[in-house]
TrEMBL record:
InterPro entries: DUF302, TT1751-like_sf, UCP021774
Species of origin: Thioalkalivibrio nitratireducens (strain DSM 14787 / UNIQEM 213 / ALEN2)
Residue ranges of every copy of the DUF302 domain listed in the record: 34-97
UniProt-recorded name of the protein: DUF302 domain-containing protein
Length: 130
């Protein structure tokens, strides 16, 4: 598996706000937000349920990762997907940094990936406790 997720009974905009707030508790900010459904509608005239990709970054941990391997930026930021399902529920999916950063064979990256995953798991858990 390359990710883990949680299901919420809320709207996509509310879920995005909750995710953004929860990420902040673990030192992450959202660098980018891609409205995939909006882009597909504009570029291809395809209708899709709401689907957003949030590029989450913890600056301190990102700096450590870049110090270990300058090319690690190819695997950053940590993506979080917020999508509406057919039944109206919202799925929030988190990239598993252990799976992704496992591609990097530099000293210290595995422990850093575990730290990032622990933080993202706490974000996931915080979303279900509200």
């Amino acid at each position: 598996m390359y990710g883990f997720n949680v299901t919420l009974n809320t709207t996509v905009p509310e879920a995005i706000q909750r995710v953004t707030d929860a990420l902040a508790t673990e030192g992450f900010g959202v660098l980018t937000e891609i409205d995939v459904a909006g882009t597909l509608k504009k570029k291809l005239d395809l209708e899709r349920r709401p689907y957003h990709i949030l590029g989450a970054c913890n600056p301190k941990l990102a700096a450590q990762a870049l110090e270990a391997d300058p090319d690690i930026g190819l695997l950053l930021p940590c993506n979080v997907v917020v999508r509406e399902e057919a039944n109206g529920e919202v799925t929030v999916g988190f990239m598993d940094p252990v799976a992704v950063l496992g591609l990097v064979e530099q000293e210290g990256v595995a422990s850093l990936a575990n730290e990032v995953r622990s933080r993202l798991e706490r974000v996931r858990d915080l979303l279900t406790s509200v």
